[in-house]
Amino acid sequence: MELSENLPRRYNYVNLDDAWSAPARQGGRLVADPQRFPSGIRALSDYVHARGLKFGIYGDAGALTCAGYPGGCCTERNTCDAAWAVLQLPRPTPAHP
Questions:
Q1: CA 66 – CA 56 distance, rounded (Å)
Q2: What is the pTM of this model?
Q3: Residue 50 host element (H or E)
Q4: How far apart are CA 45 and CA 63, in angstroms?
């Protein structure tokens, strides 16, 4: 996907929805799916920010997301914000206990 710098300014955020992460944690941490995001989330975040937009990413407070990927379990917010420059981390109701 490429964001055109000539688009009218109608949006403030670009948000990644569910299924962005790898199917399993690595070292206990959420990581991006390396096939979908070979440069990682930080590179995508930097790309979005360079175009004057804010970047958000989906997270779930439960053990799994709605699509069955690893959930945040309320432990990832600070890690994601700092490491990936995420400005918005939605927290829907957990899909799974």
A1: 17
A2: 0.72
A3: helix 40-50
A4: 25
Q: Find out whether 67 and 18 touch, Cβ atoms under 8 Å.
A: yes
**Tokens found for residue 86:** 């995420």
Q: How many CA atoms lie within 13 A of 84 on its CB side?
A: 28
16 contact partners, CB below 8 Å, separation of at least 6: 41, 44, 55, 56, 57, 58
pLDDT of 62 over the 90 cut: no
Domain boundaries, the chain: 13-84
Which of 61-86 are b and which e, b meaning 16 or more Cβ less than 10 Å from the residue's Cβ? bbeebbeebbbbeeebeeebeeebbb
